[in-house]
């Protein structure tokens, strides 16, 4: 990953290619609300962040107001003092981030919301590995739903994901062709679990870090 600041961000934003997705990691506190997101989007739009106007879709997904460049797609997620922002052209990315932590009710939640295959895969894991595996499935599913522009009400059991050492794989998405989708885990760090999804061709992911205050 690369560390950068505001001037470098603006320079890199100028060179966002059609076959890329830029993913930025930054420190985040809830009281900042959407200001960091607007600041990053402003760099890609070539305007100050306070001039970026956001709207909310039917299921709460933020989008650029019609006055802005509609070819620019984005999504963001925050957890545990960190945030990730994904940006690409002519694409609707979905990204999800969770702080790695013990989830005592992981299997119980999986039985209620996940598919039978996913729950069975979690059940055979030792407790020491189950928490991370649960969060990986959760973030992958959330990323796909966010790329769809849908929320959890869509139903986590209407899509299924498998996880191996090498990759995440979308196995089923009700009403859609899984071959049209891309799903990738993001190697943020050992304390965070993150996934990125989008509908379309494979793209290169540029993962960077924004320095605090940058």
From TrEMBL:
What GO terms are given for molecular function? holo-[acyl-carrier-protein] synthase activity; magnesium ion binding
List UniProt keywords, sorted A-Z. Answer: Transferase
- Which superkingdom, per the lineage? Bacteria
- List the InterPro entries: 4-PPantetheinyl_Trfase_dom, 4-PPantetheinyl_Trfase_dom_sf, P-Pant_transferase_sf
Q: Is this entry keyworded Transferase?
A: yes
Does the record bear Translocase in its keywords? Answer: no
A GO CC annotation given for this chain = cytosol
Q: Where is the 4'-phosphopantetheinyl transferase domain?
A: 94-190
- Give the GO terms filed under biological process for this record: lysine biosynthetic process via aminoadipic acid
Family listed: Belongs to the P-Pant transferase superfamily. Gsp/Sfp/HetI/AcpT family.
User: How is this protein named in the record?
Assistant: 4'-phosphopantetheinyl transferase superfamily protein
Which species expresses this protein natively?
Rhodanobacter glycinis
Q: What is the lineage of its organism?
A: Bacteria, Pseudomonadati, Pseudomonadota, Gammaproteobacteria, Lysobacterales
């Amino acid at each position: 990953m690369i560390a950068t600041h505001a001037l470098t961000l603006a320079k890199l934003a100028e060179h966002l290619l059609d076959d890329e997705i830029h993913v930025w990691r930054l420190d985040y506190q809830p009281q900042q609300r959407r200001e960091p997101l607007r600041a990053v989007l402003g760099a890609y739009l070539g305007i100050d962040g306070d001039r970026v106007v956001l709207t909310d879709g039917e299921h709460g997904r933020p989008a650029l107001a019609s006055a802005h460049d509609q070819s620019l797609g984005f999504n963001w997620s925050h957890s545990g003092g960190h945030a990730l922002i994904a940006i690409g052209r002519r694409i609707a990315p979905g990204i999800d981030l969770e702080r790695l932590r013990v989830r005592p009710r992981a299997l119980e939640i999986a039985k209620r919301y996940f598919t039978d295959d996913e729950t069975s895969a979690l059940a055979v894991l030792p407790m020491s590995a189950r928490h991370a595996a649960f969060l990986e499935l959760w973030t992958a599913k959330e990323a796909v739903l966010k790329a769809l522009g849908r929320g959890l009400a869509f139903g986590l059991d209407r899509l299924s994901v498998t996880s191996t050492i090498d990759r995440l794989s979308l196995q089923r998405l009700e009403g859609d062709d899984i071959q049209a989708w891309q799903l990738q885990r993001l190697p943020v760090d050992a304390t965070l679990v993150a996934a990125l999804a989008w509908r379309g061709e494979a793209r290169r992911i540029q993962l960077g870090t924004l320095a605090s205050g940058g």
